[in-house]
Structures are given as structure tokens and as C-alpha cells.
């Protein structure tokens, strides 16, 4: 199994950008972040002590619709909890995140948006990092499906999604908090608990890793947790950005 | 507002104290916190600013069937939030579906299986809570692919300041419409079978002989194999349900009220008896109420929403900025409250939301099934809280079922 | 074309159900009959303050006609014989005008009338159509004459009406072309005026007087010996009358005996009134509509009194 591919700061005119491609589901998301920016049109919505976060999701083949309206509100709420909007320069300003879905199965009317949610979340997180927006923590997120036979499948392909009894998207912060849970289908709490356990091990590893966690990435994806994957992407990015400084040492 | 202050002046010396209503507006966070954490000496219970206990839902009432021009309608009031839902049924002819003949051919085998089961009347499995896979797939295919359920929620009714009437749906309205549609699909509340309008080509009976010949001429493209003694039934049309929710008054938590109104309106919905009329080549309906039938819904999903109130809005913020914040200790003394069914005031003071939709199997006797569970906007709610919320939602289910069944 | 901000139905469109009984020529005796006296009004239910987030609000409902009530209590037909107006009205403001607005020394009134998609026999669209805009303009004229607008300079007042159930324009059994005008809209306007006046009073906006709406119509008896003989009817339900010659709606302030809005439709010039009434058609119509408005005023003043008593009790 191949891990997702990412590249940061691909767009020249945005303050930060990231593209995230998941090889299993085929979703390819390009995210751009502009922050901090003035939002003159939203004067009454601006809070005096905090930044205002705006998220726009553009589907690949059409303009945004009701489904995008919903996923935007979820993203706004999740990212709003980790962006440090009270840092200097951010209050009364806006953090504008634009996410374009440029590859993968289109989400049809009334379809579940959960399948693409992890890709959108990862792309926006990496774009925020690329734009150097202060964050309190990073997170990793995954999609799990429970099949009729009770198996829990990670990143299910399209036909498994259609047959799944329930779908779950969970996001865990780098400090182990449950940041997001979106579950739909029919399930009981015990099922959800085992889903949560598995999602936690996918995102963070079964038991908290020590310093050796970073090396596991080149092995099978099972060994490299998503948390490590985000961490590596950040490290690569920092290496590139600070290469002048590292080289001069 | 001015009267109590004026009367209070002679009793107490002029001070910096404010009447509660002004304190509530100027310092909403401190106001709610003061209610939730009364001084230990006072021996008062922790209650919310609106007088409810943290786990208490607002008084709910429902009324159905009062709108004349709908197939089913309901008004649900949850506290000061009011949702009106009207269901209108219109007909979608299969001739109007561009891909109908193609999709029929491709999914031919499942249809055959379905028809066999159908000949003996309504499949018996439907009375149980067990779902046959084949039927499930087809339900999903028909309802979802043909857009047979069309829910729309409107907030442009003057329900609260800030929603301009006449403007396109706000992002909140869009998000709620999507959530209702998505929940209708995932809970599979409406059975596709209730929405199908079948046509049974007549058998070669004596009195039907003449008409049948005429029939044959018209049904040439149905294929020569179809001309037998008992021709298979075919779908001629579908009912499309336009489910419109008007939020008449908004005071927090629109989703619970909107979903309850949708459920109550669908329970109230009656579809007239409809058939394919060979002479007019169209679908005709009977206006006889005794022939009309109600929808047989699957289950009884009830939504309950919650929000999290944090004692110090910046405390959590500080906790994460300082990496070694000791979280268990922070949660040791109570600093966060999970508030059920938040009103508009409380929603403005919280970031983290949770929404659960639960159902109970076998009419409330069986175990609790979660249909939807979401939480976002913070990091306070985790497994133990969710377990508690599930049981609170299950209690709410009993309450709501009673209210909606009586309306 | 496809509205992406709403959930759309099937792309090919859908058709409203066609009832078999509607195809056969309908029996005129099935038409609902007016059970009231010509000068008898339908009961009005009017309540203020049901929407706490607004500065003022009102809910108005007309009593269902006898035929509708019968079909409701003992349902026989899926086709409702007539319908009864139900609407909500909210008032937001006075509030500061947006920065972009020009200076105004007076209160700027904005009225907005929208039918719910399920309000009428035909499904209404989500975007306001011309008749809804028309209603908004008429309502604004009716209210502007009553509000003392100079007391709120640089402020705006938004009045929003949502119609949950509208009046019929004609009996459903009639062929669609049998009536030239849409008479139901006049009853809707009268209801809008009364409800908006209650909501404005509930919002404590200074007015000269309460404005009440009233409708009167000259109807023609189907079996009349000579054509042109009309009868003056107050508060007509269009479904109950085979032929309406002319109708009139007024917005009326009883304390000042002033009319702030007058809308006359149809041809009343040739109408000869029965029972020795020598008035001109339009005079009789306006008098009748004012009488009807007086009737709704009594309900309106009770509702406003209740609103004030509530406010006093809470203060």
C-alpha cells in the first residue's frame, strides 16, 4: 500500500498551499490559504479578539452546492478549534482556505461527504502550515467503513462505501484529543468504540511512539502512522524553507 | 427594563451593579458561568441561564396535518424554535427519466428477483426490522439516483435577525438541507416501494381481450418475450416527495426541530392511489381518501444536539499553547458542561457541538441504534462523554416518540 | 439553471398528480357553499409575540370554511374543497441602515412577502415571483401611511411575511380559464395588512393607528334572471363563489377613518345591487371593504392589547 503524496507551497500567489493525493481513494485536493487578510464584506461577523475562518470547497466538475455548504461548516469548525486566532496580527482578520477537488470520484447529490473529508482536512492542514498560520496542534484523520460482516476497513474503495453499514471519519490531534467524529449508518456504541480504537492506531499508532516513530515511514503503511506522515511532510517542508540556514551552519 | 432599576435605586445605594438582563448581554460568558457554577456555600444546583438543568431539553410540542395543500404536514416547537414542514408529492414518469431504459437493462437481474418477491403482495420481511440486501440496494438506487426525496430548509422567513429575506439560502440553511437529505438517505426512512407506481399489463382474459390487443400494439418495444399470460409488472412512475421545512422562529438548535418536523410530516403523509391509465397514457390518481395510503417508514430516528460550554474560553487555548498542560487535572474540577438542546444564547458561547441521531429497535423495546453521530469544533467530548450522550439521546427518543405519536 | 444552493428534484421535472375526478366535468353542486351571511366575516385567529427573536411578530389564521372543516373532520377527498389563510409576520428593527445606504431622515420600511412552497394548490418556487413582489409593494403602501416614520431617522424596519397557506383563486373544479383575475391574492393582502399591523404594534413602533385589512366583493348569482345583478359580500372566499364581478381590499385606520391602501379589481360599473341598494358599484365595494376591515380591527385591537399586557407582566 502506498501512502498519500503531498506537496507544499505549489501555488505562487497564495500565502500557502498544499496538494494532497490519496492513492487508495483517488481523491486529489489542492488547498490554498490566505492569512491574515482583511475581510471587508464580513465586518459584522468579525470577532474583536479572534480570527474569522472562511472555508470554500470547490468540486471539480461543477460549482459548490448544498453538500459543499455542509462540509465547509464542518471544516470551519474543526480548523477553528486549532488555529490560534488570537495571535498577533490575526484578530479581526480572516483566514481564507480554498480547497479545490481536482481528482477522484465526484460527490453526487445527497451522497455522503464523509469519503472525501479526510483528504480535505489533510490538505487544509498542510496548506495552513505552508502559510505559516499559527496552530495549536496538528491532526491526522482517517475514514473507516464497517462492512455488513462487521469488518472495519480503512479508506474503503467506492463499492465498499456503497455497501458499508456505517461510515466513520475521525480526526485525532497530535496530542491525542478526538477533534472530529462524523459517523453515519447504523451502528451501536460498541462498534464505534472499536472503530475509534482502530482509527487511533491508524492515526497515532497503537501505543505512543518514542523517538523511533519517525523512521517507520518507509516501511509498510501500517507501521507509519498518519501522524508521522504529517510530521514528515512538515519536516520536509521546513528543510526546504530553511535550507539556506541549514546549509550555512 | 428601566422599571426594576428605578425601583431598586432607593433600596440599595447607587453602585456598579447591573440588572441581570444587561449583565447577560454585556458579559454573556460570565453570566452563564455564574449560573452553572454557583458558589458552593449557596447550595444551589447548577442550572443554565434559561433555568434548565444541563441535560434538560426544552419543552417540545408537535401538531400535524393542519396544512391543507400538503400530503402531510407538521409543526414542531422546541422551546422557541419552530419548524413547519410540508410534504408535497408529485409524479415522476419513467418516460421523463433520461437513463431509465438503460438503467433498467443494466440492473435487470436484481429487478427480476424483486418482481418475484412482489407477486405475493408486499414482502413480509418489511414488517420486521431486517433488511434484505437486494431490496436495500435497489431502494438506495431508486431514491438516491432518481432524486425522489427533495428536502429544502428555509431560514429566510424572518425567523431571526441576520437572515435577509429574499437572499439565497445562507450557508447554515444549505448545510441543514444537506444534513436532512443525507439523514433521509442513510437512515433509509422512506421505502422506495411506497413511491413506486406499478402497472400490471392485463392478462388475456375474455373481457380484456380487446383491450389487450390494443395494448400489444403499444407495448411493442417492451419486447416479444413480455407477451405472456401473466406479464411482469412494470414501474410506470414514481412519487417524488418535496419536503419543505420553514423555520418560522429560530432560537438555537434548528436541526432537532427541523428533523422532528420532517419525521412527523412524513408520518402524516398520505399518497393517493395512483395507476397508469391506458386511455389517457398518463398516471391518474383517485381522490378517495379511503384508497390513499400512508407511508410505511423504517424506524423512528430522533435527533438530539448538544454543545459544550467551557468555563474559561481561553483556558483551553492556553492549555494547548503550553505543551505540558495537565489535562486530567484540568478536568478534575468541573470546568466544562455539556448542555443539551442549546438555545441561541448558549450556541453563541460555545464552539464544540455534538449531534446524535438514534433509533430503537422493535418499537422502542430493542437496543439503541446510532444512525448518526457527529462532533466537531473542540476536543472536550471523547468516548466517555459520547457514551453518556448516547444514553441521553436514547432517553430523549422515548420522550419525542410519545410527543410525535400523539400529534 | 439548476439552483446549486438548494436540493434539487429530478432533472426531468415532475408533474403534479392528476385526479381522475378532475378529468370528468365536475358537478357544480360540489362547489363549496357560503354558509355565512353576506355581511358575516370569517373568524380570525391572531396572536402576537410567538417569535421571540424578532422585535415584533404575529401569527394570523382564518377560520376554515364550513366545507373545509367538514372535509377535515371527516376526510373523504384528497382534494381540499377550499383553504384558509395562515401566515406569520415578523418585524426586525428599528435598526441602523447599512453603511452603504443613503441618508434617510425617516424610517426606511422594507416589506417582503413569500409563499411557502406548499402554500398553494400549485407548488410555489423558492424565488419570489411577480405576484409576491406585488403583494410586498401593496403591503408597504398600506403600512407606510400609518407609521410615524420621522421618529427613527437613519433606521430601517424589515417586515417579513411567510404565507404557510394561501387562499384559493377559484374553485378547483372550474376550468382554469373561467376566472380572469386571481381573487385569492386580495384576501391574502388583507391578512398581511392585519398581521403586519399587529406585529408592528408588538415591536412598539409608533403608529397613527392600527391598520386593518378588509375585503369585499360583488358576486353574481349563477341562477340570476338578468345578468349584472350583483350582491355585495364581505370577506369572500373565492372558492365559494362561481362568479365574482369585482373585489376590493382596503387598509383602513378606524380611529382616523382613513384608508391607506385601496385595491380594486374587476368591473363594478355595470353591477346593479340587489335589495334596493342604489349605491354605485365601487362605492358599495369600498364601504363593504371598510366594514370588513372594522371587523378585523376588533380582533387586531384585542391581540395588541394582549401583547401589551404580556409586556407589562414581564417587565
Automatic annotation (TrEMBL), chain A:
GO cellular component terms attached to this protein's record: cytoplasmic exosome (RNase complex); nuclear exosome (RNase complex); nucleolus
Principal location: nucleus
Gene Ontology MF annotations: RNA binding
GO terms (BP aspect): nuclear mRNA surveillance; poly(A)-dependent snoRNA 3'-end processing; rRNA catabolic process; rRNA processing; U4 snRNA 3'-end processing
Subcellular location(s) of the protein: Nucleus
This protein's UniProt keywords: Exosome, Nucleus, rRNA processing
Protein name: Exosome complex subunit Rrp46
TrEMBL record, chain B:
A Pfam family it matches: RNase_PH
Entry GO terms, CC: cytoplasmic exosome (RNase complex); nuclear exosome (RNase complex); nucleolus
Domain Exoribonuclease phosphorolytic: 56-272
Keywords from the UniProt entry: Cytoplasm, Exosome, Nucleus, RNA-binding, rRNA processing
Entry's Gene Ontology BP terms: exonucleolytic trimming to generate mature 3'-end of 5.8S rRNA from tricistronic rRNA transcript (SSU-rRNA, 5.8S rRNA, LSU-rRNA); nuclear mRNA surveillance; nuclear polyadenylation-dependent rRNA catabolic process; rRNA catabolic process; TRAMP-dependent tRNA surveillance pathway; U1 snRNA 3'-end processing; U4 snRNA 3'-end processing; U5 snRNA 3'-end processing
Region annotation Disordered: where it falls in the sequence: 102-133
Family annotation (InterPro entries): ExoRNase_PH_dom1, ExoRNase_PH_dom2_sf, Exosome_comp_Rrp42_subfam, PNPase/RNase_PH_dom_sf, Ribosomal_Su5_D2-typ_SF
Locations listed in the record: Cytoplasm; Nucleus, Nucleolus
Family recorded in the similarity comment: Belongs to the RNase PH family.
Protein name: Ribosomal RNA-processing protein 43
SUPFAM superfamilies given in the database record: Ribonuclease PH domain 2-like, Ribosomal protein S5 domain 2-like
GO MF terms held by the record: mRNA 3'-UTR AU-rich region binding
TrEMBL record, chain C:
Pfam families, per the entry: RNase_PH (PF01138)
Region Disordered: start-end pairs: 1-38
Any single Gene Ontology cellular-component annotation: cytoplasmic exosome (RNase complex)
InterPro entries referenced in this protein's UniProt entry, alphabetically: ExoRNase_PH_dom1, PNPase/RNase_PH_dom_sf, Ribosomal_Su5_D2-typ_SF, RNase_PH
Protein name: Exosome complex component MTR3
Compartment(s): Cytoplasm; Nucleus
GO biological process per UniProt: nuclear mRNA surveillance; poly(A)-dependent snoRNA 3'-end processing; rRNA catabolic process; rRNA processing; U4 snRNA 3'-end processing
Domain Exoribonuclease phosphorolytic: 40-205
Amino acid at each position: 500500500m502506498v501512502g498519500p503524496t503531498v506537496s507544499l507551497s505549489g501555488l505562487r500567489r497564495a500565502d500557502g498551499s498544499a496538494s494532497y493525493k490519496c492513492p487508495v481513494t483517488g481523491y486529489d485536493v489542492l488547498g490554498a490559504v490566505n492569512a491574515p487578510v482583511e475581510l471587508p464584506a464580513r465586518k459584522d461577523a468579525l470577532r474583536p479578539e479572534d480570527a474569522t475562518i472562511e472555508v470554500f470547497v470547490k468540486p471539480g466538475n461543477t460549482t459548490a452546492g448544498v453538500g459543499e455548504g455542509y462540509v465547509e461548516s464542518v471544516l470551519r469548525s474543526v480548523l477553528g478549534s486549532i488555529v490560534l486566532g488570537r495571535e498577533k496580527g490575526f484578530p479581526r482578520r480572516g483566514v481564507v482556505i480554498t480547497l479545490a477537488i481536482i481528482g477522484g470520484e465526484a460527490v453526487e447529490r445527497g451522497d455522503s461527504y464523509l469519503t472525501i473529508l479526510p483528504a480535505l482536512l489533510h490538505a487544509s492542514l498542510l496548506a495552513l502550515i505552508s502559510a505559516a498560520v499559527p496552530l495549536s496542534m496538528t491532526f491526522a484523520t482517517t475514514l473507516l467503513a464497517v462492512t455488513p460482516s462487521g469488518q472495519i476497513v480503512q479508506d474503503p474503495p467506492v463499492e465498499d462505501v456503497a455497501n458499508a453499514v456505517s461510515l466513520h471519519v475521525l480526526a485525532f490531534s497530535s496530542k491525542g484529543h478526538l477533534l472530529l467524529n462524523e459517523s453515519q449508518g447504523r451502528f451501536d456504541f460498541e462498534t464505534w468504540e472499536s472503530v475509534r480504537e482502530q482509527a487511533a492506531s491508524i492515526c497515532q499508532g497503537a501505543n505512543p511512539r518514542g523517538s523511533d516513530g519517525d523512521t517507520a515511514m518507509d516501511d509498510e503503511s501500517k507501521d507509519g502512522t498518519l501522524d508521522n506522515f504529517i510530521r514528515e511532510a512538515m519536516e520536509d517542508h521546513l528543510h526546504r524553507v530553511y535550507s539556506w540556514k541549514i546549509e550555512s551552519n | 427594563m428601566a422599571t426594576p432599576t428605578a425601583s431598586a435605586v432607593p433600596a440599595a445605594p447607587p453602585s456598579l451593579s447591573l440588572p441581570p438582563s444587561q449583565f447577560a448581554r454585556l458579559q454573556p460568558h460570565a453570566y452563564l458561568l455564574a449560573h452553572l457554577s454557583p458558589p458552593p456555600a449557596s447550595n444551589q444546583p447548577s442550572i443554565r441561564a434559561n433555568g434548565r438543568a444541563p441535560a434538560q431539553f426544552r419543552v417540545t410540542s408537535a401538531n400535524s396535518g393542519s396544512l391543507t395543500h400538503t400530503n402531510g404536514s407538521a409543526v414542531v416547537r422546541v422551546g422557541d424554535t419552530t419548524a413547519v414542514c410540508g410534504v408535497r408529492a408529485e409524479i415522476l414518469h419513467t418516460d421523463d427519466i433520461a437513463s431509465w431504459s438503460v438503467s433498467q437493462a443494466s440492473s435487470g437481474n436484481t429487478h427480476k428477483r424483486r418482481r418475484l418477491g412482489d407477486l405475493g403482495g408486499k414482502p413480509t420481511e418489511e414488517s420486521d426490522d431486517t433488511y434484505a440486501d437486494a431490496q436495500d440496494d435497489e431502494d438506495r438506487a431508486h431514491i438516491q439516483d432518481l432524486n425522489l426525496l427533495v428536502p429544502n430548509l428555509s431560514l429566510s422567513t424572518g425567523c431571526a435577525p441576520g437572515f435577509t429575506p429574499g437572499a439565497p439560502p445562507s450557508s447554515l440553511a444549505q448545510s441543514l438541507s444537506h444534513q436532512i437529505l443525507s439523514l433521509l438517505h442513510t437512515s433509509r426512512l422512506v421505502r422506495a416501494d411506497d413511491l413506486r407506481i406499478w402497472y400490471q399489463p392485463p392478462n388475456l382474459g375474455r373481457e380484456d381481450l380487446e383491450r389487450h390487443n390494443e395494448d400489444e400494439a403499444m407495448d411493442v418495444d417492451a419486447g416479444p418475450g413480455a407477451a405472456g399470460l401473466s406479464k411482469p409488472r412494470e414501474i410506470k412512475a414514481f412519487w417524488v416527495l418535496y419536503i419543505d421545512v420553514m423555520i418560522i422562529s429560530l432560537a438555537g438548535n434548528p436541526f432537532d426541530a427541523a428533523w422532528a418536523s420532517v419525521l412527523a410530516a412524513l408520518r402524516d403523509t398520505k399518497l393517493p392511489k395512483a395507476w397508469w391509465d391506458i386511455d389517457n397514457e398518463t398516471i391518474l390518481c383517485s381522490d378517495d381518501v379511503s384508497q390513499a395510503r400512508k407511508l410505511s417508514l423504517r424506524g423512528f430516528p430522533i435527533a438530539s444536539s448538544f454543545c459544550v460550554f467551557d468555563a474559561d474560553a481561553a483556558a483551553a487555548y492556553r492549555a494547548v499553547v503550553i505543551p505540558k498542560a495537565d489535562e486530567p487535572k484540568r478536568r478534575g474540577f468541573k470546568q466544562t458542561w455539556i448542555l443539551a438542546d442549546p438555545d441561541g444564547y448558549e450556541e453563541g458561547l460555545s464552539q464544540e457541538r455534538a449531534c446524535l441521531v438514534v433509533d430503537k429497535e422493535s418499537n422502542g423495546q430493542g437496543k439503541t441504534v446510532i444512525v448518526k453521530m457527529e462532533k466537531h469544533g473542540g476536543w472536550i467530548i471523547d468516548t466517555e462523554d459520547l457514551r453518556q450522550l448516547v444514553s441521553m439521546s436514547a432517553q430523549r427518543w422515548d420522550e419525542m416518540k410519545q410527543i410525535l405519536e400523539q400529534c | 439553471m439548476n439552483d446549486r444552493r438548494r436540493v434539487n428534484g429530478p432533472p426531468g421535472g415532475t408533474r403534479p398528480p392528476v385526479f381522475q375526478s378532475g378529468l370528468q366535468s365536475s358537478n357544480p353542486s360540489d362547489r363549496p357553499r357560503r354558509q355565512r351571511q353576506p355581511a358575516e366575516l370569517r373568524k380570525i385567529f391572531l396572536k402576537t409575540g410567538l417569535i421571540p427573536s424578532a422585535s415584533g411578530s404575529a401569527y394570523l389564521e382564518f377560520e376554515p370554511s364550513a366545507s373545509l372543516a367538514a372535509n377535515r373532520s371527516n376526510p373523504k377527498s384528497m382534494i381540499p374543497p377550499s383553504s384558509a389563510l395562515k401566515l406569520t409576520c415578523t418585524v426586525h428593527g428599528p435598526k441602523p441602515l447599512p453603511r452603504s445606504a443613503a441618508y434617510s431622515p425617516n424610517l426606511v420600511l422594507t416589506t417582503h412577502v413569500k409563499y411557502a412552497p406548499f402554500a398553494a394548490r400549485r407548488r410555489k418556487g423558492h424565488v419570489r415571483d411577480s405576484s409576491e413582489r406585488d403583494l410586498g409593494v401593496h403591503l408597504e403602501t398600506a403600512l407606510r401611511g400609518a407609521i410615524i416614520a420621522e421618529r427613527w431617522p437613519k433606521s430601517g424596519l424589515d417586515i417579513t411575511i411567510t404565507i404557510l397557506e394561501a387562499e384559493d383563486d377559484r374553485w378547483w373544479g372550474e376550468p382554469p380559464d373561467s376566472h380572469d383575475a386571481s381573487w385569492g391574492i386580495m384576501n391574502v393582502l388583507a391578512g398581511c395588512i392585519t398581521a403586519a399591523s399587529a406585529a408592528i404594534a408588538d415591536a412598539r413602533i409608533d403608529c397613527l393607528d392600527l391598520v386593518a385589512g378588509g375585503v369585499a366583493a360583488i358576486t353574481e348569482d349563477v341562477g340570476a334572471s338578468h345578468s349584472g345583478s350583483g350582491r355585495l359580500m364581505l370577506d369572500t372566499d373565492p372558492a365559494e363563489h362561481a362568479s365574482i364581478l369585482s373585489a376590493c381590499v382596503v387598509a383602513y385606520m378606524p380611529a382616523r377613518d382613513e384608508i391607506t391602501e385601496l385595491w380594486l379589481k374587476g368591473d363594478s360599473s355595470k353591477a346593479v345591487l340587489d335589495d334596493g341598494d342604489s349605491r354605485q358599484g365601487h362605492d358599495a365595494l369600498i364601504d363593504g371593504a371598510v366594514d370588513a376591515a372594522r371587523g378585523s380591527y376588533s380582533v387586531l385591537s384585542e391581540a395588541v392589547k394582549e401583547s401589551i399586557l404580556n409586556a407589562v407582566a414581564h417587565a
